[in-house]
Amino acid sequence: MSQSEAGMSGMKSTRIDALFARLRQENRPALVTYFMGGDPDYETSLSVMKALPEAGSDIIELGMPFSDPMADGAAIQAAGLRSLKGGQTLAKTLKMAEEFRRGNDTTPIVMMGYYNPIYIYGVDRFLADARAAGIDGFIVVDLPPEMDEELCIPALKAGLSFIRLATPTTDDKRLPKVLENTSGFVYYVSMTGITGSALADTTKVSEAVNRIKRHTDLPVCVGFGVKTAAQAKAIGASADGVVVGTAIVNAVANVLGSDGKTTADPAEAVATLVRGLAQGVREARLAPAE
Amino acid sequence: MNKPIEPNSFRTGPDEQGMFGIFGGRFVAETLMPLILDLEKHWNEAKTDPAFQAELQALSTHYAGRPSKLYFAENLTRHLGGAKIYFKREDLNHTGSHKINNCLGQILLAKRMGKTRIIAETGAGQHGVASATVSARFNFPCVVYMGATDVERQKPNVFRMKLLGAEVNAVNSGHGTLKDAMNEALRDWVTNVENTYYLIGTAAGPHPYPELVREFQSVIGKEAREQIVEQEGRLPDVIIAAVGGGSNAIGIFHPFLDDKNVEIIGVEAGGRGLDGIEHCASMNAGRPGVLHGNRTYLLQNDDGQILDGHSISAGLDYPGVGPEHSWLRDTGRVKYVPILDDEALEAFKLTTKLEGIIPALESAHAIAQAVKTAPTMGKDQIMIVNLSGRGDKDVHTVAKMMDMEI
Q1: A61 flagged as catalytic
Q2: Which H/E stretch holds residue B23?
C-alpha cells in the first residue's frame, strides 16, 4: 500500500461525520458492530465483515487480535487467540479492510485493539497503510490521553479519527482531557469491567451519556454489555450509537465445531443477530422515553 | 540500537510522565487512569510523610526482620578461587524473600487510600505469599491470581497463601504463568475500581508502580552499601542480581547506580538457550514494546504478539522486564546476561552443599553468574550477590529435574 492518497482529505467530511449527520435526520442511533478480524480465518472473517452493513450495521469496529487483551472478557480473548492461530497479523487485518472497501465506500471502519502490534508495525507506516486501506479511525484501549503523542496526535494529523473511551471513572474534572483530542465519536464504556459483562442499569447509562454531552458536541456511542435487540433499543433511546461486540463474536464461536471448522455459515449467523439489533436501534426512539 | 547520551545521574528517573528515556509510561485503559493518578498523588504524599516512613520502618524492623544480613560466603569464595563473595540475605526476611519489602510499603499505601480489598499477581508464589501475609496482618481480603502452570509447580506456596486467608485463582489462559496472571489481575482491577488496591509485585506496570516498588525495594541496596563499607571498608567491585520483572535487582542496584566503579550485572533467565523461544531473556533477545501498562523490552514476534517464554524458575518466567532495567540496559550502565536452567540448577546445588543455604531458583541464576565471574576477578576484589529468596518452595521442581521423587 502507498501513501498516495494521504494529505488530501484532511478537511473533507469523514465517513463517520457523514453517517451521524444522516442518522440525526432519521432520528435514530447508529448500530456499531465489533467483530474480530481473522476469526477463525481470513476468508471467513472477511465474509462476516461484508455481511455486517447488509444486515444493518452502521459502523464496523474491526478487531485487531492481540495476545494479551487486558480489557477483554473470555469471549473476545478466545476470538483473538483463534484469529492469531489462524495466521492473522496486523498487515492482514489492514488487507481485510482494503478488500472490504472495494465493495463498500460508505460504512465507516474503526480499527480496535491494543497498541503493541501497531507500535511494532511502526506508527507512521501503520497510519499510511490504514489510510490507503480506507480506515476511518482507531480505538486503542491502552492509550489514554496521557499517551497522546504515541498515536492519537499522529493519527489526527493524518486525517484519521481517534475515538476515545470514556468510562464511569472518567469524572467531570477529567472528561475535558479525555475529549480534547477525540474525534469521530465518543465511546462510552457503560460499566467498569471487561467486555462481555452484564449490562449496566440503562437509567445510569442515560445519565452518563447526558453528562458527556454537556462537554462535547460529538456523538456518544455506548458499549460493553449490549447483547440483545431489546437492550440496543433501550440504550439507543439516549445514546447516539449502540456498540455490540461480544454477542457478535459469540455468534461466530457458536458455529465453530470443537475442531475449529464451521458447522454453519458464520456470516449468516452474524447477519441474523445484526438484523435483530438493527431493528432494535430503529425502534429506539419511536416510543417517547419514560 | 543507538546508545542514549549518558546522563549526569542514573538515579533521577522517572520523569513526570513516568518515563525512563523511552521506557515506562502509563499504557492503561481509561477506566484505570483515574486510579493510577490517585495512586500517584497518595504515593507522592506518602513518600515525604515522616509518619508513613516511620510506620514502614517499624514494620520492616519488627515484622519483616530487617536489616537483612550481608553474609560472607567463605566456602563458595574458596571454591571459586576469585573475588570475595557476599550474599545479601533477603532469604532471611519474613516470608522468605525480598517481596515483603514491597508488600509492607504498598499495604500501608492501600490503607492510606481507604481501599478495602487487595489483589495481586504471582509467579513463583513469593509475592502472593507476601501479599497474603500483609493482607492477613492488616485485615484485608486478598485475591491472588496465579498461572495454572505455576499453581502446579509451586504447590507449597499455594497452600501457604490459602492458610493466610487469601483466595488463589488459577489462570488458564496462555501458558498459565506470570504474564497471564497479570492480565487477569488487571481485568479484576478494571472491574472492581472502587474498593480494590492492585498490589503489583515487581518494578513494572504503569507509572507510578515502577518507581514506588523500586523505592520500597531500595532498602536492600541502602543496607548493603552500609554493610559492605562496615565489613570491608569500601564499596564492592561487582553486584549481581537476578532479573525477572526486576524488583530485587533494582532494589540492590539503585543505590549504587552513580558509583561508576561498581560493575552491575543483571541476570536474565536463559531457559534452554537463547536460540529458540524457551527462555525469558527479554533484554538479550527481545525488543521494546508495550505490555501491562509500560513500554519495555519484551519477547514478541514480528507482529507484536507477546511470546510466553520459559524458565525453570517461575519467578523469572515473564516475557518482559521493569522499564528502568530497559533504560539501564540501553544506557549501558547495567550489563544484562542470560543464565541457562542447567547453570542455575548447578548453582542451586553448589550453594546448598557448600554454604548450607538453599537459594530460590531465581537467586540461583544470580549465583550462577557469580560462579562465572568470581574466578576472573582478583582475591582482593569484592562481589555482592543478591540472595533474593530461599529455595524451600523449589524443592519439588528441583527433585523433578534430578529425576527424584519426594
Answers
A1: yes
A2: strand B23-27
